Amino acid sequence: MNEGHRVILRETRESHSSKGINAMTTAHDIDLPTVLAERLTNTHPDVLRELLATFIHTLMGAEADALCGAGYGERSTERTNQRNGYRHRQFDTRAGTLDLAIPKLRQGSYFPDWLLERRKRAERALTTVVATCYLLGVSTRRMDKLVETLGITSLSKSQVSVMAKELDVAVEAFRTRPLDAGPYTFVAADALVLKVREGGRVVNVHALIAVGVNAEGYREILGIDVSTAEDGAGWLAFWRSLTARGLSGVRLVTSDAHAGLVAAIGATLPGGGLAALPHALHDQSDGDHSEGVVAVGAHPAAFGVRSTRRGIGCCSI
Fold it and tell me: Which GO terms describe its molecular function (predicted)?
C-alpha cells in the first residue's frame, strides 16, 4: 500500500457465498496496529525490541545530525559540531528493556527529552508506529506523524524522508526473513477486511495474516500482507511468499474455507489435499460458523480431529 492509504479502524469479517465475498461489519471496532503490537509482543518480543531500538536510534541519530549541521561522518562546510561517542541509558518497553546508545557531541550536549522525559507516551507512540509500518510499510507520512507526536521539531522534511527509507529497509528485512525455525506443524490463517481511504474514497482491502507453531512449540507470526484482490490471487501470492521463505512441514491449517484460500493452500503446500470441518473461526456469538480448513494431505481423523456442534473439538498429531 502506498502512503496515500489511511486505515479506518473498523474491522469487517468476510462472509463467503458462492457468488463471492460480502463484508459484514462486526459490532466492535479494533485498532489493528495495537492488536499487531500485542501479537509481536507475545510471539516475537526480541523482534519488537530490535525494531523499536532501530527506530529510536535512527531518530536520535537524525536529531544529532541536525544539531551538527551535517550527517554522521559527512564532510560539509555547513558542519557546526561533531559527534563524540555515546552514553548508554536503559529504556523499558512492553517487549523488554532496551540498551540505548545516545549520541554525545563534542560541543554542548544532546538529550532526547521526547523519549526519556515522556517514556510511557513515547513507548506507546513508537510501538504503534512500528506495528503499523510492519503491516503497511514505512512511509514519509507515517514518520512525519511520529515525529510530530513525539514533539521532535529539529528535523527537516528531507531528513525525515531519508530516515523513512532507512527504516523501511529494516522492516522489510523482517517481513521477508527466512522461515527457518520449522517445521511449522500448525498454521492459522485469517483475513481482516479493512476500510482504507485512497484518493478521496473509501475502499476495502484485506489484511492477510498467518501464525504458525514452530519446531520449539512457540507461536510465530509467519507473515502479514495487505491485498486488494478478492478473487484468491491475494491468498495465492501470500502463500507462495511463505513457502518461498521456507514454510514447510505443515500438517494442519485452521481458517475459514474461502475458496481462494483453499485453492492457494492446495497449490502451494506439499501434498495439498485438504479436508474441512465446520468450526467457528470468529466470535461464537455472531452466528458466523464458516467451514474450516483443518487438514493438509490427510483426512482430519488421521490427526485426531473431532468435529463438535460448536466447532473443532480437539486435535492432536
Answer: DNA binding; transposase activity
How crowded is the C-beta side of 227, counted as CA atoms within 13 Å?
21
* Residue among 53, 49, 36 nearest 221 (CA): 36
C-alpha cell at 313: 473439538
Q: Does pLDDT of 86 surpass 70?
A: yes
φ, ψ (nearest 5 deg) of residue 103? -60, 140
Own/partner pairs, 94-99, CB within 8 angstroms, 24+ separation? 94/37, 94/41, 94/48, 94/123, 94/127, 95/40, 95/41, 95/45, 95/46, 95/48, 95/49, 95/52, 95/127, 96/45, 96/46, 96/49, 98/49, 98/52, 98/53, 98/56
Do 298 and 317 contact (CB within 8 A), yes or no? Answer: no
**Residue 107 CA, distance from chain mean position:** 40
Residue 33: cis peptide before it, omega within 30 degrees of 0:
no
Residue 300 clears pLDDT 80, i.e. is over it = no
pLDDT digits (tens, 9 = 90+) for 229-247: 656 888 899 999 999 999 9
Burial of residue 183 (number of CB atoms within 10 Å: 0-12, 13-18, 19+): middle
Residue 15 has phi, psi (to 5 degrees) of -110, 115
Question: Is it the case that residue 187 has pLDDT exceeding 60?
Answer: yes
